[in-house]
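Protein details
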Amino acid sequence: MIYITQLIYILDGQEQTFNEFEELAMPLIAKYNGQLLLRYRPNADSIIEQNIETPYEIHLVEFKSEQDLDDFFKDEERKRWVHLKEQSIKSVWLIKGTKL
């Protein structure tokens, strides 16, 4: 299994556009042997310590293989909607790892 964690920072006023992209892209994860394990919107009350800007959302996703992850990112249907992501996201930290 391969795990990705994403810290997602969006542009001010682009929440609706980002959420539209997510509604279209998230269902495609399962098509590539993936599963959304966590989708979280942190708030001030849930942060214990902080040295970075608070992300809009944090995602934890698992895929059975690196190839499945690559295929997800190359999905033609997802590519049709990626302009919504590009319009709404300021930056993303993508962290890959494995479960220990």
Residues 10-44+52-92 form a domain with the Alpha-Beta Plaits fold (CATH 3.30.70.100). The CA atoms of residues 40 and 58 lie 5 Å apart.
